[in-house]
Amino acid sequence: MRALEGITESPFSLIPLPENPSFNSSLTTQKGGEFFRPRLYNWLFECHGFLHNVFLIACSCAFVLYLAFQAKKSFSKLSNGRSYIMMAYYGCLWLVSMLNLAWCIFQSWECASGKEVAWNILSLFATSGMLFLEVSLVAFLYQGNYASGLEALTRTFVVSGLIVGVDILLKAIYLFGFGVPLFIDSTEHPHHVKWGLWVVHRLVLTAVYGLILFMYHSKWRERLPARPAFYKYIVIMCILNTLSLFACVLTGNGASFGFWLYGATIVCYHALYLPLIYITFLADFFLEEDMHLDNVYYSEMKDAGFFDADWE
């Protein structure tokens, strides 16, 4: 017994055993993997699904990259065109595109606990930015063919800012004041107040686009710009908002098909609306600037006598 007590009281028993760094690193890696794997899995499969997230990110990222590749050429054409409205709208398109890209990337926040506030704020600014583009675009084109005066720019931005500001204020009150989950969709916990608000929101937008379509087929069509691109844009947005309105009504009444249809309209809106604006209007403006520059170059060459030999 004394020998055993001597062994236990030996000073060598107090020396700590050396730690195995590979063992510790494997534990850290395992813990990190256990922490990272559920988040990656939830982002890929649980929150809306893999195809939903990849489609949104691919479309929004591709459009931002396209804007980046065309930025130098676009800025040069905007400077030559001297249209303050188009320059301001191009800048707003860049800002909203970045917000929309962030909204598409952080889709997992909608399904993650503790991220509700961050997701609501991001969704509020992203959707409000896109609504600002909608309102201002209708106001821009309603004034005629690419109005360029500072007075027109100020008037359009003030009206659009007031409308979107009221929309942001009302949504913020319902989000943070009454706790209505406007941007968190769930079939397990349907919120009738939320879908009622979205019905009103979509009803107003559908009525606006429907009124413009009615004006195109009435005696007031001369007040609208005679641009086919504007008419096609109004038709597309009227159809999209009508489908979204129908989906909100169905979802508010508990129909699962309405929830699916609403999700499809949201995906189409966030993935394709910004490219639609660029292709339909800004690309048309840039094409007109190219034709204008070609005419200027032709006139300068003609004045310099480059084509005199063709007439002899």
TrEMBL record:
Transmembrane regions listed in the UniProt entry: 50-69, 89-109, 121-142, 154-175, 195-217, 229-253, 259-283
Main location group: membrane
Compartments reported by the entry: Membrane
Keyword Cell cycle: no
Keywords: Membrane, Transmembrane, Transmembrane helix
Any GO MF annotation of the entry: G protein-coupled receptor activity
Domain of life: Eukaryota
GO CC terms, sorted: plasma membrane
Family: Belongs to the UPF0359 family.
Protein topology in the membrane: Multi-pass membrane protein
Protein name (record): Transmembrane protein adipocyte-associated 1
